[in-house]
Amino acid sequence: MPTPSQQIANHIGELFTCSPVAQYIRIRSPYLYPDGEIIDFFLEEYDDESYISDLGETLRWLRMQMTSKRISQKYRALMQDICLTCGVELVGGILRVRLEHPEELASAITQLAQASVRIAGLWTPPKGSGFVSILEQVAELLEREGIPFNRNAKFPGRSGRDWKIDFHTLNEGCNALVSVLSVGTAGAAVGKVKSVVAGWYDLTQMKQEPNSMRFISLFDDTGEVWGPEDFKLIGELSDVTYWTEPEKFLDKLVTRG
Predict the structure, then answer these.
(1) What are the pLDDT digits (tens) for 120-178?
(2) What residues are paired with 82 via a beta bridge?
């Protein structure tokens, strides 16, 4: 029988990695909470039952963002609706999906990921927070320079997953996909880099004809959260640019690589 790692690779691809943690198998996903923290799932196996769960991490994350640590009845009703739509159980603050057969592992992870992302998305970042601000500033820069663009465009990857890209710029003879990397902590930076790398890797075919897209990773380098290894890792799959050097960023958008 294939191992959980092999099942995930066979059904979803190599964007997920597995490792044993205590009595669980941790499944590290390419999905992120809104602040850039990686979303992990856990395989729990008992004598006659198996589950994929988040071990309560999604609700823990949501509570950490709120002034009140108690989740209101309104939020709980919304979470129940999300779980019902995604086919996920909410038991004692834990999101989980029961596995009837081993081959259901990949689809169960997808259901759980959808629920985790949507529940975390119930939190609205404070207006003017860093990540929202940088995206708006990039949009204003593109508008000011007369560069046509679409925001949050979705593109299908080789794995079958759709990737939402921050900006798709449209220039004659030079189209580009731009991912903006802006987080508040070094811990969140690790997850953000891994997610962007996974997206660029899965979308590699977009660099080929007839699309011939240029991949650009725009780092918000106004804080000290990034390390040389982050730039190197992303630089292997995309052009690295910095928010403190807008002229160089704009030059990448209008010239072929």
Answers:
(1) 888 765 554 444 468 888 998 999 889 999 998 899 998 888 898 999 998 877 899 99
(2) none
Identify the three-state secondary structure at position 234: helix
Element at 44 (helix H, strand E): strand 38-45
Q: For residue 70, what are the contacts with CB-CB under 8 A and spacing of at least 6?
A: none
Q: What are the residues whose beta carbons fall under 8 Å from the beta carbon of 183, sequence distance 6 or more?
A: 35, 36, 131, 189, 192, 225
What's the pLDDT tens digit per position in 174-193?
Answer: 899 999 998 766 767 888 89
C-alpha–C-alpha distance, residues 166 and 169, integer Å: 10
- Residue with the two structure tokens 């007369």: 146
Are 113 and 31 in contact, with CB atoms under 8 Å apart?
yes
Closest by alpha carbon to 110, among 16, 187, 233, 181? 16
Chain centroid offset of residue 40 CA: 12
Q: How far apart are CA 118 and CA 75, in angstroms?
A: 12
Considering the entire predicted model, what is its pTM? 0.58
For residue 16, pLDDT over 80 is answered with no
Q: Which residues pair with 163 in a beta bridge?
A: 155
Classified as helix, coil or strand, 71 is coil
Evaluate whether 105 touches 11 at the Cβ level (below 8 Å): yes
Q: Which residues pair with 20 in a beta bridge?
A: 25
Q: Which residues of 200-227 are buried (b: 16+ CB within 10 A; e: fewer)?
A: bbbbeebbeeeeebbbbbbbbbeeebbe
Per DSSP, the three-state class of 61 is helix
How far is the C-alpha of 60 from the C-alpha of 239, rounded, in Å? 36
The helix (run of H) or strand (run of E) holding residue 26 is: strand 24-32
